[in-house]
Recover the amino acids of this structure.
């Protein structure tokens, strides 16, 4: 059954013909069948869903890096940060990632699922229609599988698409003394068991987590098993991003401390840079050099990194707008970073722009000028969101 949406004051397609005024979108089976002037489509549709003016329609946003499945809170860490204690120092004092690991291990599946679902609905209201979710707060075979199963269950009970990633290599759990013995354990005991839930493996390459050497072996092992690779790299010290490019990772995420040489190295690879302004805002630290990454010709993606520690805000649009004004990123590059380029970072070829055959994942803002969306720095909220053609009104 075909359904026509519109008229939209503007449709921002994120393709080569970027802006259509007074357009309509014809849907069939949750996918885009045609995009054309509304009046040209009016007679073709079996059903019309009128959109109240003014309205700008874009591809649903894609948040390609989050940690929104977790137990507990890190508000105490935040108080320490306000007093000037660093993220690494907090971790050494028993806060940080391991604090969330404790709370997540303790949480029941039901509690984890409820928290995850609540965050998913918040994301949907903010225009996100696809979201990546990492494990990484379990750090034992059983607890990592518990997280992946909870994410799997959420996939069937939230409107947005969830893409899960195994981040068992998030940090070294208390039960282990060294990074390499822990990586050997998860390489041997966990990776062979998780292919039914995820195709993606991530690792945190950093001084207090895993070294480049340890990470290389683990990533190559995961690659051999057929996983797509992702690296948390260059957040506090450089090296991880270069490794990501070397092993052919899909994306290198964070990059606050990437060097000019490594930007050049990344630019020769297929690895997509994902910057996480929410982690800079959550830690009170400088942003990643997004302008330099774009100047090197890289297809910059932006994600929220929503997590209870370094990035508690979880508001992708606000964060992208703030990064853009600080780093001098054009509006089109900013929108691309949270739509088509974020889709690329997740290897999704059916969304991220508005094209015939793509999913009818759309976000609609109550304005007739798309530029106002970033101008208002996130405070202009979507009036409605469509996921596979189904409407959610806010
Ligand atoms: O991407 N840097 C490592 N991991 C997460 C933080 C997770 C946490 O603090 O709980 C990040 O910022
Ligand atoms: Fe992260």
């Amino acid at each position: 059954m075909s359904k026509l949406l519109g008229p939209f004051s503007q449709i921002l397609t994120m393709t080569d013909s970027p802006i259509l005024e007074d357009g309509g979108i014809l849907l069939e089976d949750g996918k885009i069948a045609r995009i054309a002037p509304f009046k040209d489509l009016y007679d073709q549709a079996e059903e019309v869903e009128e959109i109240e003016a003014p309205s700008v329609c874009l591809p649903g946003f894609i948040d390609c890096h989050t940690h929104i499945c977790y137990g507990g809170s890190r508000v105490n860490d935040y108080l320490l940060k306000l007093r000037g204690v660093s993220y690494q120092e907090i971790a050494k004092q028993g806060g940080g990632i391991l604090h969330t690991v404790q709370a997540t291990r303790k949480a029941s599946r039901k509690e984890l699922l409820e928290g995850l679902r609540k965050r998913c609905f918040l994301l949907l209201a903010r225009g996100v229609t696809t979201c990546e979710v990492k494990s990484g707060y379990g750090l034992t075979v059983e607890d990592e599988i518990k997280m992946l199963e909870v994410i799997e269950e959420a996939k069937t009970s939230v409107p947005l698409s969830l893409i899960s990633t195994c981040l068992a290599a998030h940090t070294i759990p208390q039960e282990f003394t060294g990074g390499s013995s822990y990586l050997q354990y998860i390489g041997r005991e966990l990776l062979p068991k998780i292919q039914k839930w995820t195709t993606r493996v991530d690792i945190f390459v950093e001084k207090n987590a895993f070294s480049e050497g340890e990470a290389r072996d683990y990533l190559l092992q995961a690659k051999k098993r057929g996983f797509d690779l992702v690296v948390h790299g260059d957040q506090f010290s450089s090296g991880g991003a270069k490794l990501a490019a070397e092993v052919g990772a899909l994306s290198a995420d964070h990059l606050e401390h990437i060097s000019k040489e490594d930007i050049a190295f990344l630019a020769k690879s297929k690895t997509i840079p994902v910057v996480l302004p929410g982690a800079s805002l959550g830690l009170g630290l400088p942003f990643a050099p997004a302008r330099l990454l774009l100047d090197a010709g890289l297809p910059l993606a932006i994600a929220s990194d929503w997590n209870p520690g370094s990035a508690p805000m979880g508001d992708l649009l606000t964060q992208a707008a703030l990064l853009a004004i600080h780093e001098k990123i054009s509006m089109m590059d900013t929108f691309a970073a949270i739509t088509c380029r974020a889709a690329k970072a997740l290897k999704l070829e059916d969304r991220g722009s508005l094209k015939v055959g793509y999913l009818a994942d759309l976000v609609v803002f109550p304005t007739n000028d798309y530029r106002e969306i970033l101008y208002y720095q996130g405070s202009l909220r979507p009036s409605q969101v469509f996921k596979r053609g189904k409407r959610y009104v806010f």
